[in-house]
Amino acid sequence: MGTGALSIEALLCVLEQANPSGEFFRGAAETLDRHLVSTRPAWPKATPRGPSRPLTIGMATYNDYDGVYFSVQALRLYHPEITDRSEILVIDNDPLGPCAAALKSLEDSVPGYRYFPYGSFEGTTVRDLLFREANGEYVLVMDAHVLFAPGSLGRLLRFLETQNQAMDLWQGPLLSDDLRVQATHFDPVWSGGMYGRWGLDARAADVDSPPFEIPMQGLGVFACRKDVWPGFNPRLQGFGGEEGYIHEKVRRNGGAALCLPFLRWVHRFQRPAGVPYKPTWADRIRNYLIAFDELQLDCGPVVEHFENVVGAEAARPMIDAALREIAGPWHQFDAKFAIGADPARCEAMIGSRVRRIDLPQTPTNPEIGRILAHRGAIQEAVWQGLHKILVLEGEPIQGVVYESEDFDRILRETPDTPTMVALWLRRQGNFDVFGRSMKPGADQAQAAG
Amino acid sequence: MRVKRTSSSANLKIEKLPDGSTAIFDAGSKTVYSLNATAGAAWEACQGTNSLAGVLNSMQASYDPAVTEEIALEALVQLQEKGLLLISEAPLQPSRRSAVAIAAGVLAPVVLALTSAEQRVFAMQSLSTTAAPTTPRIT
Q1: CB-based contact B119 A28, cutoff 8 Å
Q2: B13: domain range?
């Protein structure tokens, strides 16, 4: 007499007969999802999108709750005139870190606040994702430790409303800690391991001066129309290398980099307790070389500067590795994803940085987790406008290539929850038909040869 | 003997399947039940009546005239064991129930359940690792 538990297999048989749009199916599938996946999502969930507002104020953070907290509350306390016309979007670049829950909880008390976890890779270019995720026509990106002069954001919003065809990048004067205008732009020279050195244009002294063109600036504060944001190269990772590069992309796109004298801001430079991330010379050198290569600029000054700053002996291996990567067969991929495989091993194997996608553990059928992870990589590619991606997985490590012309079809034809994938597999679904297999070692040798 | 459903009908999402079985999802407990045709007929009967005789009559009329009182009772007991029903009097003894199962053959009732117990365990673990706040929050 059957008085036992309903097995997963038996429930799948039940669901095969049930109406997929019925209430029983929906509820039972949710319960089964929890049984199929033995690992629980470790990240806090993203805040659902609210209604569209003219301005998205976005910031990316890596374990800087205090910075985010005071920046967000300063926006509310000192710029109430924009509250109803803006959303605050925070990308948490360490969603497994100690600040994640606290950053998430701000959604309960700050109207218009949106928490968004992102952990596929770390770096300053995750700010690109603010534009992908923004709900506003205009996006103001700020470091998560910046304060704006009173009235500046209300004025910015009024200015932006006259710019609905603009292709420009807007920035503002940096105030020093004594609140005087300290700098307006970067002069395009190499200095101290960075491209760009702070400079001051006297036109910014008057807050009512008209906007004026600047060559470049640090990216503590910048704004752009969402639709014309030119985007960071998706291969960039780690910290540094975007200044000057993004300004040049804006210009090549038909826009200008402009300083708005009224958009005044202060920036917390001092970090006496240290920073929770580790900027490396290797990342910075790699980022500059990839950015210069993309713009087809002479990489000679990059090499020369870092040989001087770091020392030729230390810099040369980092420079050579980056140049090999750029010339190598894997650079064609906008992003390489490690799924289940050790990211460090993948990076060593292909000589390039990889992103990480979580592989859900589905003990009753590991293929369910694998399909969900591959879909996750493809969804990320669609979201970020990538064209060609490589997924690395397994032992020994294997590669699967997906291209943009197939992305929509794959996502349309394959299910996105554990239960639906399990049912799809029972109907002879085969995810391997969507990608092209690649053996990194063999194919790399072939391409190189 | 009196029988009564335990969950409010609003919480239960019920679907009769092509193979004659009945599938139930309890939105309150997040539990999924699968009832074979005999158990499903007993469950159906409990909607309109609350006595064993009433359930038996209903099962014989709507499902199979060969259903006996023992089979009907066994179905009700299984539904009770899975938490779907409350029975006001003591159920059959185990040895007697085995005999019913053998005699019932294809009419033997079957009630299976998949609970969300693992989910609850996970939630408890998460709560137990939360640190005490350093400064009380005003709530």
Answers
A1: no
A2: 3-128
